[in-house]
From TrEMBL, chain A:
It is found in: Cytoplasm; Nucleus. It comes from Cicer arietinum. Gene3D superfamilies: Pleckstrin-homology domain (PH domain)/Phosphotyrosine-binding domain (PTB). This is Chloride conductance regulatory protein ICln. InterPro entries: ICln (IPR003521), ICln/Lot5/Saf5 (IPR039924), PH-like_dom_sf (IPR011993).
Automatic annotation (TrEMBL), chain B:
This is Sm-like protein LSM2. GO terms for biological process: mRNA splicing, via spliceosome. It is found in: Nucleus. InterPro entries: LSM_dom_sf, Sm, Sm_dom_euk/arc, U6_snRNA_Lsm2. CDD domains: LSm2 (cd01725). It holds the Pfam family LSM. GO terms for molecular function: RNA binding. PANTHER family: SM-LIKE PROTEIN LSM2, SNRNP CORE PROTEIN FAMILY MEMBER. It comes from Macleaya cordata (Five-seeded plume-poppy). Keywords: mRNA processing, mRNA splicing, Nucleus, Ribonucleoprotein, RNA-binding, Spliceosome. Belongs to the snRNP Sm proteins family. It comes from the Eukaryota.
Amino acid sequence: MALGLREISGEPVIDSENGEELMRVQPGVDIALSNLPRESPGTLYITTKQVIWVSDVDKSKGYAVDFLSISLHAVSRDPEAYPTPCLYTQIETEADDEINSDNSDSESNYVHDLSNIREMRLIPSDPMQLDTLFQVFCECAELNPDPNAEEQEEEHDWIFSADQMEDEEAEEEDYMSHNPTNTLGHSNGHHDLARTILELQINDQRFEDAEEIEHDEKDTHH
Amino acid sequence: MLFFSYFKDLVGREVTVELKNDLAIRGTLHSVDQYLNIKLENTRVVDQDKYPHMLSVRNCFIRGSVVRYVQLPPEGVDVELLHDATRREARGG
């Protein structure tokens, strides 16, 4: 997986065969990379996988970055931070990885300067569009979870599928307001455990202390 | 899933999110999803001298995979609840 910003030339290419969809086209957007000067108006294409900017002046000039590489995005309206309201993004780069893994002698030494771009600002000519752009970015970012995170989830059996999770969530909402302790038990999908513990506490009269503990817990959580 | 449930309880509180690139952002927790993507409101950068350009943004979406730590408000930490939940999680059942 290639991290970071990359240069593209010509019209944006959308990989619809692999499920990539165009979510929004926003004309009249300037772009500013790191501390480089702001570039003349262009068109912003937001897809389910990436953000693409193509210059209006020179159609062969453009940039693209995957949502997987966008660490954070935010609406910036503070004139001290940047003179014009913009969507501020931070970009994770291959160079970041190399600092971490310390193999600086790899081939990336002659990669284009873009590999060092860690910030990108998108400046719409109409600042009213910022909140919408922010929302679209949020939706698309959520569609692109870390691939490594999913691998981990499969290794451990206490994480369940997305379908299950929706059911659990609906249930969870009900429990949330009543008993946060049970919420955590249920969120792990351990209905049986939660029930067993409950039955144990109710039915087994031999352990007087256990009941007291239960009361204590209730006091603490409310 | 433990932390997803736990963070959901902290919505509306002030937290500090520390990223793997050392940037620390303080703000009101707006929402969190199952990938631990975090949305903050009324944010400000903790180390403003080091990151002057990010002085303040109104709302901010942080990718779950770049988060190193989330600093919780002391009053939002229920130690007993966490002990209980982590034990259950560790048992795996």
